[in-house]
Design brief:
The complex is a heterodimer of chains A (268) and B (372). With 268 residues, chain A is of the alpha/beta class. Chain A has 7 helices and 15 strands. In chain A, helix 3 links the parallel strand 8 (134-141) and strand 9. Chain A is globular, with a radius of gyration of 18 Å. Classes of the chains: A alpha/beta (268), B alpha+beta (372). The A-B interface holds A 1-3, 5, 7, 26, 43, 45-49, 70-71, 85-87, 227-229, 231-232, 234-239, 241, 243-244, 246, 249, 265-268 and B 90-91, 93, 95, 98-104, 131-132, 135-137, 139, 253-254, 279-283, 285-287, 291, 294, 301, 303, 308-312, 316-319, 321-322, 326, 330, 334, 337-338. Chain A: [2Fe-2S] cluster binds at residues 232, 237, 240, 248.
């Protein structure tokens, strides 16, 4: 499976080192469409590939990926500008189980860059395409300068409940300070009808799962997106194994009740 | 399926018949002090009269007292190197004026014939088929080579102390389909192969070589030779009850056995390279000096390296304890959930080729013992 060539139609600098690319396929390429939670392998010429989740809306013609420059490949992607091309293979993996949300209260819980794979869910709600009772977003970032999609968060706040918090505030931060579990613990929720989608650092997801279960939410109603090293995305290279799961094939979104046993084992 | 007799002195005619069908024949050859799998063009290249001695961390070839062609045990090579190549180009990319271009490296896969495939090795190939062919995505390089493959299996007439095929239900008698199945029999002055076809291609070959119908006595002799090996493996030092391995390992992710094996394991990856089923790979992306031409290569990788589980913030499996646990638990337990079989065929390669003599069967027993 070789990458299709996509062109960068738009590049937005979200914050230093974090950027969002809107991609359109070349004339000869088929248009790939991703369900929320699925990912593509993005190829920077000669540098390699990285798995990146979709951050776009369901109805935009191209693909949207938010990327943080961390290693050699993401730094090469960071240097690309509008009009440049990159390679793309996908879509891979299972997405967020949007079809299981009818009439539910959805908690979207994100930490740091973990908001990127959940942005399509927020858009779907704003566009009225989700059959849910309500959506609430709980978002935590380290610092105000690292709040992802900051201007959008304000817009989203007019249509749905958005709780944002930072670990370390500065004088210009008007909002909450502290980890995301604090506002989550005081949130009023109906455990029988609540479903949670979580994406963020593993330690953050761990505390959120614990807290939600303490509030009576069933492990079958908690979903989280996992990250592991990935080379092929097709279940062949073995790198993303996590117990019996291949993150690329069986995830990256898992139902907590299905993976509970594996979640407890460090360095698995 | 009718069985025939091929006299040992006519083995070369079998080799030439297979080659004349357009196959590149690979088989056992004595080279560099080991019996390796290499291209074979004539019967006199086979390791006739040679065998091996194997134990934990030890492998030596030595002379046999007879002239058996296939009187050796699993060596450092496995057939996977011909199907899942150790290193192969995947795609080439170049920068053009307005866009990059990416082209798959499409291989004209060679039609290969494997001569001397043991039953445990047939099982190993079948296990890799589940990973690369019968999976959601296909590995086209593997699938292309596999589709054309001709297999001449040879049942074991000898066993090493490192063998435990009977514990994994993979041998020694050939228990999966092959194009040809042979059993080598040496009895007094007789030296012949009992041979039967398992496919139309195999039958074609049989028609071209001097064979005659097997007698009841010859059938009995061949069956007895394989039965002797079965008894030898069953009574051997690595024989053990594998029926509860998955449950045992699933219960023991925090066993002190992992700390103990980590004190000896060098995390060198030898076991994963020698293993005929280990399938992990990584990729290398490179450019030439002009920066305009790039290539992607795939190569064998191992879960014993730190890079293997690299994430921002460091490797997920930072220590040898977690890497050995991953390898053996995958091989013997989680493989069942992934592919519906064990990942171990009992060939014993990981035992012989471990430089510090770690024995997978001993480690299982250690987990069991420390559970109490």
């Amino acid at each position: 499976m070789i990458p299709a060539v996509y062109r960068i139609e738009r590049r937005i600098e979200e914050m230093p080192g974090t950027f969002t690319l809107s991609l359109l396929p070349g004339a000869r390429e088929e248009v790939v469409s991703l369900r929320p939670g699925q990912f593509n392998m993005l190829y920077a010429f000669g540098a390699g590939e990285v798995p990146i989740s979709s951050s776009g809306t369901a109805d935009t013609p191209g693909l949207v990926h938010t990327i943080r420059a961390q290693g050699a490949v993401t730094r090469a992607l960071e240097r690309l500008r509008e009009g440049d091309t990159l390679g793309l293979r996908g879509p891979f993996g299972n997405g967020w189980p949007v079809a299981r949300l009818a009439g539910r209260e959805l908690l979207v819980i994100a930490g740091g860059l973990g908001l990127a794979p959940l942005r399509p869910i927020i858009y779907a709600q704003l566009q009225g395409s989700m059959n849910v009772h309500s959506v609430r977003l709980f978002y935590g970032a380290r610092r105000p300068a690292e709040v992802l999609y900051r201007s959008e968060l304000e817009q989203w706040g007019r249509a749905l409940e958005v709780v944002a918090t930072v670990d370390h505030a500065d004088v210009n931060w008007p909002g909450r300070v502290g980890v995301i579990t604090a506002p989550l613990s005081t949130a009023q929720l109906d455990p029988q009808h609540t479903v949670a989608f979580i994406c963020g650092p593993e330690i953050m997801m761990r505390f959120c799962v614990q807290l939600l279960m303490g509030k009576g939410i069933s492990p079958a109603n908690i979903y989280l997106s996992m990250e592991r090293n990935m080379k092929c995305a097709t279940g062949h290279c073995g790198h993303c194994q996590w117990g019996p799961n291949f993150i690329c094939r069986d995830g990256p979104v898992f139902r907590y009740s299905d993976i509970r046993g594996w979640w407890q084992i460090p360095a698995l | 399926m009718q069985s025939f007799i091929l006299e040992a002195c006519h083995l070369d005619q079998l080799i030439q018949a297979i080659r004349q069908h357009g196959f590149q024949l690979v088989g056992p050859r004595l080279q560099d002090g080991a019996i390796l799998y290499c291209e074979i063009t004539a019967a006199d290249q086979l390791p006739r009269g040679w065998t091996d001695e194997q134990e934990k961390g030890r492998y030596r070839v030595r002379r046999r007292e007879d002239d058996a062609f296939f009187g050796y045990n699993a060596g450092p090579h496995s057939w996977k190197k011909f199907l899942q190549q150790p290193r192969r180009p995947v795609w080439r990319a170049q920068k053009a004026a307005h866009a990059m271009q990416i082209e798959a490296v499409v291989e004209d896969a060679p039609a290969m014939a494997f001569l001397g495939v043991r039953s445990c090795e047939l099982h190993a190939i079948a296990i890799q088929d589940r990973v690369f062919v019968d999976n959601r995505f296909r590995n086209e390089s593997y699938a292309g080579r596999r589709e054309k493959l001709f297999i001449a299996a040879v049942e074991c007439a000898t066993a090493a102390p490192t063998c435990f095929c009977t514990s994994m239900n993979t041998g020694p008698e050939v228990s999966l389909p092959a194009d040809l199945v042979m059993t080598e029999v040496i009895h007094d002055t007789e030296h012949y192969f009992l041979i039967r076809a398992g496919s139309a291609r195999g039958e074609d070959i049989l028609h071209q070589i001097p064979v005659e119908a097997a007698t009841a006595r010859q059938l009995r002799q061949a069956a007895a030779a394989v039965e002797r090996v079965r008894q030898q493996v069953e009574a051997g030092p690595r024989s053990f009850d594998s029926s509860d391995l998955k449950a045992l390992l699933y219960r023991n992710f925090e066993s002190p056995a992992w700390d103990q094996v980590a004190e000896r394991c060098l995390s060198c990856a030898n076991c994963t390279m020698a293993c005929p089923t280990c399938f992990c790979s990584t990729v290398e992306d490179t450019t030439d000096l002009s920066g305009d031409h790039a290539e992607r290569w795939e190569r064998w990788d191992s879960c014993f390296t730190a890079d293997f589980s690299h994430l921002t913030g460091g490797p997920v499996r930072a220590d040898t304890r977690s890497r050995y646990r991953q390898w053996i638990t995958h091989k013997l337990a989680t493989w069942h959930d992934q592919f519906g079989t064990s990942g171990c065929v009992g060939c014993g390669r990981c035992i012989a080729w471990c430089p510090v003599g770690i024995d997978i069967t001993e480690e299982v027993e250690r987990v069991r013992r420390l559970e109490g």
